[in-house]
Amino acid sequence: MKRLTYVIVLAFVALSCKTKPDDQNQQNELGSIKDPGTLLESIASQYPVAALDELVEPISQEELADVIADGESEHWTSSGPSPDRPEIVVRNKSASDKLIRFVLYHGNPILAMIGVQQENAQVTTTEVWEYWFKVDQDHPERWNQHLLPDYKLESFFDERVTLPGDFHGQSSKPYLDYKLGAASITISLNKWVFMRELELNSISLSGSLDPALVKYKYVLNWNGDDFSEEKLKEAGYDEGLMFTSIVIEPRTDGGPGVHEFDCPHGVSVKTSSKLDKQGNYTYDASNLLTPQTAWSEGVEGEGIGEWVEFTITTDFHIGSSWQIGNGNTRNKEVWAANNRVKKMKVLVDEKVVGYVMLANAMAYQEFNIAPGWLTESPVFRKGTKIRFVIEEVYKGSKYNDTVISYFVPVGNCG
Length: 414
Description:
Blueprint: E1 5-7, H1 21-31, H2 36-44, H3 61-70, E2 76-79, E3 87-92, E4 98-106, E5 111-120, E6 123-132, E7 143-146, E8 176-180, E9 184-189, H4 191-200, E10 208-209, E11 216-222, E12 227-233, E13 242-244, E14 246-247, E15 267-271, E16 295-296, E17 307-312, E18 321-326, H5 332-337, E19 340-348, E20 351-357, E21 365-368, E22 385-394, E23 403-409
C-alpha cells in the first residue's frame, strides 16, 4: 500500500558558530538582495544537506549548489524560481518522486524562512528553517529549525467526533499534508491515509467514520517576521453527519441480517405510502421485517420525500445499528429494473440526526446511526421513533418505483 508519512524532524543543524569577516560581509550582502528568486537560489544552495535525511539517494553539498546554479548536475535537475513564485524544485534524474522543494518566506532583513520538503516515493518530510544573515553572539548559528505546530488528530475533525482509544489525543503528524505557498503554509489531514489506517486498526469505531467529518485545516500566514495561524473549514465541509453503510456477507450464525428478524414485536413500522398489489406481490410496510418480501413507495415519481418510520416497542436496547436489503432483491433482473435508495435523512423523535449513504449493491448492507465515535449519540428506548426519509435514489432501468426489500434494527429480544 502506498502510504505517506509526514515527519517534523526535531534535529538541530549548525553550520558554524563563528564566521570570518569576509564571510560575514558576504552574508550581509546576501541579506541586501531584493530579488526573491536570486535570494532563494543563494540560500538554498547552502542548505545543510545533512538535514536531508529522508532521501534514499543522498545529494552532496557541492552537487546541491551545482544543480541550483546550473539547472542540472550528474544526478539531479532543478526548476525555478519564477518571478511570481520563489520556489526551487530539485528532482532526481533516476526517480522523479525523489525531490527537494525549497520555498522562501522573506521579509525581515535579519533572517529568512525556508520551507523544505523532501519527497521520496512513500515518505515526505516538511520542515521550516531560519536562515540568519547576521551571525553574532545572540544568534551564533546560521541555520536553525523553526518548529511547526504539533496538532492532535482531533484538531481536524468535527467536534461531534470522538476518536477511539489508540487515536484519541494522538499527534496528527503521520497523516498531514503540507502545501508550501508563496506566502503561507497550508496544513491539512490526509483523509485517505488516516481512514485507511483506521480501517486496518484493531479498534472498531462501531460504524463507518465518513471522511467528510474532517472539518478543519490550518494556514500559517507569513507576515514578514513570523507565521500567524489561521483555522479554516475544509472546502466542501457539510454540517450534516453522514453515516456510510458497509456491505455485509450472508451470516450463518442465526443472527439478524439475511436471516429472519427474530424480534418482530420489538418494533412497529409504518410508511408514508405503498405501491398497490402487483400480481401476487404486495408492498406493505410490514414486508420490511422479512427478507423474502419488499416494500415500495406508492407515489408518482422517484419517491423523494417518502419515508419509513420505526417505533421501538420493547425495553430491550435496539435501534442504533441497521441492516438493509436495498432495492428489490428477489432477483438480479427486478433489482436492476427498480430504483434503489442512495441517500436517506434520519430523524429520531422528529430531530434530524444525520444522513445515511447506501451503496448501489444487491448485497445486504449495514450502518450505525449511533456509532461509538459520535460524542452525543441519540438514545433509543421504548417509544422512540426513527424515521428514514428518501433523499436520493439510484435509477432503475425500467421502473420508477423505489424499493427496499429488508430493513431491520440489529439486535434480538433475548
